[in-house]
Design a protein that fits this description.
The structure is a homodimer.
Chain A (H helix, E strand, L loop, with lengths): L8 H20 L4 E3 L6 H4 L33 H11 L6 E3 L5 H14 L14 E6 L3 H9 L3 E8 L2 E2 L1 H10 L3 E6 L13 H8 L9 E5 L18 H7 L6 E6 L11 E4 L2 H14 L5 H11 L2 H30 L5 E3 L8 E5 L4 H10 L2 E3 L16 E4 L6 H25 L1
Parallel strand pairs in A: 1-12, 3-4, 3-6, 6-7, 7-8
Antiparallel strand pairs in A: 2-9, 4-5, 8-9, 10-11, 11-13
Helix pairs in contact in A: 1-13, 4-5, 7-8, 11-13, 12-13
């Protein structure tokens, strides 16, 4: 099979005519499919429903320390919820602050608190001329939105299969005191599904920041979100690595049950050092009397421990795996060898990342939308929504059914071909 | 009966000796009672337990607009939760943003957002030389902690039985552009149990602030928290009054089910104008994907409407009324006519406010603690924890049993007498 680059102008023109015809035909089908957001399907959520019966009107609502979970009290989580969430990320319960329904507000509040109050006694960022964050990209759009919202300058760090470009990270962090943070999704990264290698984690732990208030924002959103039993990525414990390197205060690790129990009705937590917890709690205690302890208790009563989480994740994987495979199969069958795109084959998480030819991503996404298939907006995976090469497209296969996904993927590869041919003809 | 002021030195000295003996006797009982926080008793929470069965694993978790409440989506609350919370404060569902488990975080976040982003386009407060809030006092300590946390200068406004001193409020708000807000608990105020009169509400609505970013923080925490069926305070609708006065953007009204369902596991909301909602949502959408819609649905399924709330509040009142009456009876029997203190007799809310002789509050609270009765720290009801006259004591009768309350109140009046006599002897 020839790659598109090897085709003559005439061959490309014939191909283009053929693809245009196919596209018009596809458009006629009136598809309405959404591969834009990483949300579970309704069918995937059905097996989580018994969680809602884990506590009832008959339950004694006492935490292990005697706390009446129906009443005021306890800022940083009931003891058993700390233990449960600690097991999720593989750290000690003593490191945990268990919060509300999702981890995004914890991250937002952490940046917001740094703006108004500084970090562990440093100058509030709102008083500084310049504050910068490193943004491994492609990455999670909602991370970038937070730093953009606060006027923090974002610097793109290229992502590799073993994590961010650590040479560049070290260069920035260790030399530029205006660099105050870095956004990381270290396992099954959004959108590529990459997991940071042991070496990458250790290089993170050994950073010697020019800024005393520099912190790693380690969003371990997919820590137990494996698609396969027999092949799984392994992520080193960053808190342990930082402590070992003598930098216990370097990292905030975030986690939640958003894609374990119910998105928006889960339990979220942050794991970090004693100094950092003390700092966080100093404003948390002003912001809230306490988070929802009944929902914490509900999650503990239902999942018990890491094994309970894993049993649920296995059920989730049974829904997700065929969806990833459906998309991958179409990509492989239709695009392999054509030289117009490559894609990741993650072992977990919620996304497949597609790299189109430079300058094609936006046009492909638009073309898909024209025929009824919604993808994440091109550029969304980069700070300020600007993909410098206009090449990355995030595919989120979790919500549609496998059948819908095949149809959506068929249209997607058609649009990739069409836009790529147009690009080559225009060159 | 003679007031203490009418007693001779000798009479006071004899009285003092007698009170000291009584105090030592009371101390010997080894009491351990807490009248410090406005939290419901466990018995009061038992009748709320069926809420937990209002949604189960069998429930179809669809909101009225078709939203799957188990999944991501909906920033500002499901429609039926907006309707329910709107009925609580007597406004239109269109004015509501329904949030998470409590209203304190909404207030904190509103101040925090004003610090970093300004209000509806104004200069961020963190960029200003000076920002001031008016603090009707005695008031709610957690309000004052928020403004203190952000370095906002707090100005005490005396509270009267019909609300804050409005002459002073108007003078500050209409002339000083550094005054950006005022904390209000307009119904059954914390701690006095006062309700703002119709005239007070109308004067609030007619304010013409020197600062375009001035807002009234209207914490309607006790809007349906009546103790009696036959006599209840009535509060005018501030949103309606502001709209009528041509100042629709003047107010944020906060409410929650914290003391309706479960403290910390309730549903909270803010009611405000379209401009203000747009501004709030512009950062809420960065901070969160959405609040806990299952808990919103649970509350709707259980309470249905205002009548459901009122039925629950009637049960709460049956627990609370005897407690208020137990304390009031002791105060009346033991202190009436002595000239050493006066107290409020609220028709709702969670507190009784006691005014001791000037300079006595701290000593009374300490004396009570010495004999095992914990009261809210003296001064807590004033900004910076500083009661200028050292006279206000907040009594929270909701948590102990009526029997415990009688014992606690007996000790309290004993300490009031003792400290007052000492004060008079030292004069």
């Amino acid at each position: 099979m020839k790659s598109y680059q090897e085709l003559s102008k005439e061959e490309l023109e014939n191909l283009h005519a053929d693809l245009c015809r196919q596209f018009e035909e596809a458009k006629g089908k009136g598809l309405s499919l959404d591969m834009s957001r990483g949300k579970p399907s309704p069918a995937q959520l059905d097996p989580v429903m018994p969680l809602l019966d884990a506590i009832t009107a008959e339950t004694l609502m006492k935490a292990s320390d005697g706390t009446d979970c129906r009443n005021y009290g306890v800022l940083d989580g009931i003891p058993e919820a700390k233990e449960l969430m600690a097991q999720m990320v593989g750290t000690d319960a003593a490191n945990m602050i268990v919060c509300g329904n999702a981890s995004l507000p914890i991250m937002y509040d952490t940046v917001s608190r740094s703006m108004t109050h500084g970090v562990c006694g440093s100058t509030p960022w709102c008083k500084l001329e310049q504050v910068k964050f490193l943004c491994p990209a492609p990455g999670y759009d909602r991370h970038f939105k937070i730093t953009e919202h606060f006027g923090i300058e974002m610097i793109v760090i290229p992502m590799k299969a073993d994590g961010p470009d650590m040479d560049l990270v070290e260069q920035y962090v260790n030399n530029d005191p205006t660099v105050k943070g870095i956004w990381c999704v270290p396992k099954y990264s959004n959108p590529q599904g990459y997991t940071y290698s042991k070496e990458t984690v250790e290089r993170f732990a050994k950073l010697t920041p020019a800024a005393e208030d520099f912190r790693i924002y380690w969003d371990n959103a997919y820590c137990i979100h494996d698609l396969y039993e027999e092949k799984q990525d392994v992520l080193e414990d960053i808190l342990g690595a930082c402590a070992k390197a003598g930098h216990p205060d370097l990292v905030f690790e975030f986690c939640s049950t958003s894609k374990v129990s119910f998105p928006g009705a889960g339990v979220a937590a942050v794991a970090t050092s004693e100094n950092n917890r003390k700092w966080m709690k100093s404003s948390m205690m002003i912001q809230t009397i306490g988070y929802d302890k009944l929902n914490q208790l509900r999650h503990v009563a239902y999942y018990h421990d890491l094994n309970g989480f894993k049993a649920q994740m296995k059920k989730h994987a049974d829904f997700l795996r065929p969806k990833f495979e459906a998309v991958e199969k179409v990509l492989e069958t239709e695009l392999a060898g054509l030289g117009i795109g490559c894609w990741t084959k993650p072992l977990g998480g919620y996304f497949i990342s597609f790299e189109a030819m430079d300058g094609c991503a936006k046009a492909i996404v638009e073309k898909c939308a024209e025929a009824g298939v919604k993808l994440t907006g091109a550029g969304a995976t980069y700070p300020y929504g600007k993909d410098p090469k206009d090449s990355n497209i995030r595919i989120a296969p979790s919500f549609p059914t496998p059948e819908e996904l095949s149809a959506a993927a068929d249209l997607f590869v058609l649009c990739v071909k069409l836009i790529s041919v147009e690009k080559l003809l225009a060159a």
